[in-house]
Amino acid sequence: MPDGSGSERFDALKPSRVAALCDGVFAIAMTILVLNITVPSPRTVPPEQLPGALRHIAPQVLVYVMSFINLGVLWVGQHNQYHFIVRADRWFLWINIGYLLLISFVPLATALLGYYPLERLALFVYGVNLLGATLVLALHWQYATAGGRLVARRLSPKVVQLAHRRIVGTAGAFFTALLLSLLVPVAGLALFLVVPFVNVLPFGVDPHLRHGPEGRDQDGG
Amino acid sequence: MPDGSGSERFDALKPSRVAALCDGVFAIAMTILVLNITVPSPRTVPPEQLPGALRHIAPQVLVYVMSFINLGVLWVGQHNQYHFIVRADRWFLWINIGYLLLISFVPLATALLGYYPLERLALFVYGVNLLGATLVLALHWQYATAGGRLVARRLSPKVVQLAHRRIVGTAGAFFTALLLSLLVPVAGLALFLVVPFVNVLPFGVDPHLRHGPEGRDQDGG
Amino acid sequence: MPDGSGSERFDALKPSRVAALCDGVFAIAMTILVLNITVPSPRTVPPEQLPGALRHIAPQVLVYVMSFINLGVLWVGQHNQYHFIVRADRWFLWINIGYLLLISFVPLATALLGYYPLERLALFVYGVNLLGATLVLALHWQYATAGGRLVARRLSPKVVQLAHRRIVGTAGAFFTALLLSLLVPVAGLALFLVVPFVNVLPFGVDPHLRHGPEGRDQDGG
Amino acid sequence: MPDGSGSERFDALKPSRVAALCDGVFAIAMTILVLNITVPSPRTVPPEQLPGALRHIAPQVLVYVMSFINLGVLWVGQHNQYHFIVRADRWFLWINIGYLLLISFVPLATALLGYYPLERLALFVYGVNLLGATLVLALHWQYATAGGRLVARRLSPKVVQLAHRRIVGTAGAFFTALLLSLLVPVAGLALFLVVPFVNVLPFGVDPHLRHGPEGRDQDGG
């Protein structure tokens, strides 16, 4: 029994396995988004009315593209974190499952917004869903890095902070879009459309990633 | 031919591959749960009735969250087992496929319960589904550990027992909820809602996982 | 350029990657089977008629279980083959994609049979689908093993033959069920229900797998 | 801090992880294609009308097979590229997500074409979708190989060019089919049906893959 200390860990889920579940849920959520777009069928739409029917579902397609990119942003965000996470524990696991719960809800919020793109309530549900996911992602990073709990020892505080700042920035943008939706729905929708594309852009921590340590001095913003 | 003993094993599925199929089925089942929630559409629900329509699907959303967490619990439960399983055989494989059959049925039972949250029959189907999955999970552990069949040699009987006890405890909770559903549906539903969250909590075997062998004396409960 | 011979292979897909796509398609096909079962909803089925509505979908549930096990058999069959396959080429890849095409069609054939469990045409479509998948699986093995094309060198002809025989046996059973369906639909359906469970049982090559080389003499049947 | 240069890379997604998301999206898109085929049900189609109902969905099945093979071609195309790609960066990641966006749209374009197989607009949407995906795949290769950005150093310019030429050839075929669709819909549909099968065939770079360096002289076309 004295040799059993290593193999007797009952709860030692490897981060890579949690990541596999995450990849699966993201891939599925991204792909089933499209199932919520109403495909016109000959039963209700005769061929000559097809152009009008497609114009009719244009908002759904737009919202679908927006959600796809947003899920992409959230996937990239989580994966970047996994790059540094080397251990997992029970609470971490459940933060992940809570994150996935919000991710898997996105297709529903997207369908709703596709149907009612300018309704305050639909924008509210959509915004709360994305904001919630972003905040859980912040918690995910916070939990993993606090006191170096689940990360590699050599991770510098600067990287921790930069990553945290980026997530908080995204959360702030979603919160603003959410508030704006309640005042001027069309402006809120426009902001929701812009946020993911801003997130695609490189950010402060990127330069010294590509160029290595020598670029470390210029990562202020 | 004398060298062929190793490479001629025809049925030697590695546990990691079975786990990959399991991850896939869990990820999909968790993500398609949401497809069963009825999204209001402008054809039947004019914008001004949207709040009422969303209140109307609230039970479906609640049941969806409950099922998501339950699937999370069952996923974690199985993955914890895989941490110790180092071999697979034909029967083990089919126990897994039986497990996945029950997992893939959860979206249907969830949809039914979402539509009829206080109907005895819907609660019964839901409860039998979850109870069945939990019992197959117990069988899975039983089969893998009996006589050390598929597990690492160094696995202590204490861990085997603690894990077994936890699964049996969950099965007992589901069984109680099932019985309660038949008597007082709303109480049964409430218990179903509580069980997954209790499962999220750490349990007896956790402390000595984090702290290593020196915590081994305190894992009585 | 003389050093480029290894890294310039443009088409060298590793079998493990093809297997990953296969696992994905199988996991999804198995999990979306359930989406084709008609869940009764309060719009059309008042609570007091729920028992009758569930009895009404019982054939769909039965066919779903049958298809799930059949997909399990086909997944196990292919994975057992991958245990020996160490290379992939272009034709092998496309045999796989053809196989997956038939696998992804199973949910449709299952839905059809669930609706019309005793119709010759529905049984015919179902049977052709499963028989086709089994024959492509035989081709898959044939192609991989002919002249040792894609398998490890040490693979004995006996294993090749035993595996081949098993697949051909399954194909024969499906073919019989298909013919029987056209004569006596209910008997054909019954045979379709039995075949997957027979496939779950161990077969000739199993004993000497568990016990190693010393069991090699008894693997005749 | 001087030792932190390696572990502080914040954006160093490994290509294998991106590939895992791609495999997931492809597997799902391929498998949910079938969900868009209208399965006849006893509510609207009495058993004796089943043959007619199946003939009625024949175009949907045909288009489904075509899309499945096309997705197979696009999957193989991307995976062949991954064989050479050893690094990933932020832009590469987003090119991938853009690619997946187009892939996940294929089920919708397929459903539309299945309903309206000879309508110019449906053929146009389908063609633009496939052409777009192919062009993004070309960009993917272009971006990864330009100046050896993300590929192994030893990759010869000849392989880069051959792969590029193949993708451009496919794009040209889709573009032709697209134009043809607008003039003679049935001819455009026929060409869409042929393209994927042509892509299944081996091409110029294949021979010297199988036979190694000595076949290098004969890979002109």
Count of individual domains of chain A: 1
Largest binding interface between chains:
C-D, 45 and 49 residues
Which bin fits the share of residues in helices of chain A?
A: 55-70%
- What proportion of the residues of chain A form beta strands (DSSP E)? under 5%
| N-to-C order of helices and strands of chain A | HHHHHHHH
Overall strand count of chain A: 0
- Outline of chain A, from the CA principal axes? elongated
Low-confidence stretches of chain A: 1-11, 207-221
Alpha-beta content class of chain A:
mainly alpha
Please give the radius of gyration of chain A in angstroms. 21 Å
What composes the largest sheet of chain A? none
Written account of the structure:
The structure is a homotetramer of 221-residue chains. With 221 residues, chain A is mostly helical. Chain A has one domain. Helix content of chain A is 68%, strand content 0%. Chain A contains eight helices and no strands. In chain A, helix 4 runs antiparallel to helix 5 (120-145). The radius of gyration of chain A is 21 Å and the shape is elongated. The N and C termini of chain A lie far apart (53 Å). Mean pLDDT of chain A is 83; it is low at 1-11 and 207-221. Chains C and D meet through helix 1, helix 4 and helix 5 of C and helix 1, helix 2, helix 5 and helix 7 of D.
